[in-house]
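Case study 2.
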Amino acid sequence: MEIRVPIGVSVAPRPGAANDVSDVLDQVRNVRRAGLRQVWFGQRFDFDSLVLAGVVAQAVPEIAVGTSVVPINPRHPVVVASQAQTVQAAAAGKFRLGLGLGAATLESAAFGITEDKPVLRLREYLTVLRELIEHGGVEFAGERIRVNPHMPTTVHGGGHIPLLVAAMGPQALRVTGELADGVIPNLAGPRTLESHIVPTLERARPSRPLQVIAGVPAVVTDRVEEVRARAAESMAFYERVPSYRAALDREGVERAVELALIGDEEHVRRGLRRYVEAGATELLVTQTDLAGADDQARTWEFLAGIAG
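Prediction:
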C-alpha cells in the first residue's frame, strides 16, 4: 500500500571510498534503478553539497536533487544564490535548496563565527536570497546582512528554486512560513509535526500550504538490535545540539535513536505513515546505510514501492 507522498533518500560517500564524488554517483544510479526519484545531500566540512548536487544532476538527469541542509552563517547569500542557480540550471529545474541555521558550537570552532541573532539573520537571508534569485539583484542594508552586488545575479535557467528551511523552533518556523516554500526538519517526530511544526506554519502563512519534508532515519533489516545499536551511536551527536534536544524533548523521547524506524517492511511502513498522518507532505529517509549495502538496497526498493 502506498504512503501517498513522495519519498527521497539522503546519500553520502561510503567510508573508504577512493573518490567520494564517484562513489556518490554510483549510489545515486542505484537509487534511481531502485525506483526512487529524489536524493538529498547534507553539508559538513568535507564535500560541498551544492557542487555535488550539480554534478549528480548532470550525470543522472532523471533524478531530482536537493540539499539538506546548507548552513546560512558561513556563506553570504550572494554566494549561495550563485551556487543554487547554477545547480538549478544543471538540474533542469529539479533542484530544491534546503537551508539551516547551523550548530553554534561547530561553527564557532570551525569558522570562528558566532551568530547571536539567528532568527533575524534567517529573515534577512531569505529576503535577500529570494530577490537575488528571482529578480537578478537587490540592495539591502540589514542588521545582519548587507548586499549590493552592482552586477546582475541571474543565472539563466536557474530560477524558481524552492527554498526550504530546517526550522523547528517557533520563531524560525514563523519566519519560514512567511518567507520560504517549506520546512525540512530532521528528527522532528510525528507528535512534533502535528502539534507544533504544521500549526505554526499554517498560522504564519494561511494563504497557501507549504512543503513539509520530514527527515526520518529508517532501515529495513532483520538484524534489528545490531542496527539499532549502530544507530544509537551515530545519532548521539544530535542529543547534544540544543535545537535537536528541544525537538526530542517535545517528542517525549530521551535518545535520538528512539525516532529511528528499524525493522521489517511493515514496521517501517507503519512508522512512515504516522509522519504523513501528522502532516508531512514528503519524506526524506536518512541513515539507510546503517545495516550495510544489502539492507540499504532492500530499504531503497521498499521505499520506491510505497512512495506516492
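The first helix runs from residue 20 to 34.
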